[in-house]
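Lab notes, practical 5.
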Amino acid sequence: MKNAEDVMGMSHLTFVRNFMKRYGVYVKRRISGTPVPAEVNHGRWIVKCPFCAGAEVISTHDPVFYCLSCLNIKNDGDLLPVLIPDNYREIEAELRDRKNEANQNWAPGERLDQLIKENEERKGEI
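Output from the prediction step:
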């Protein structure tokens, strides 16, 4: 699956800092608040913002979230910790078997055995 590094050539945090630096906004390194769950959407690890309708590509290597839409204003601008499933590599392996990136999706709470079953039932279709 694609991490922020694959999509943007850098971690989510580095991208956010570079982006905001252009606009004179300082991004704190403080991490606080309730952890937000990561999911896979069209082959990319993302987090949907818990405060607004925004979403960002994130990194499983640097699991923090900062929304470029609302600037995490409801979290005092602090970064949010991201929940990455312990078995994320196995999830990625199953999703890679799906040739069409539009079908490479995983939601928090979805079990690995569900992905395996879907892949077996729809072999060649997804």
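Observations recorded by the TA: Residues 4-121 form one domain. The chain has a mean pLDDT of 91.
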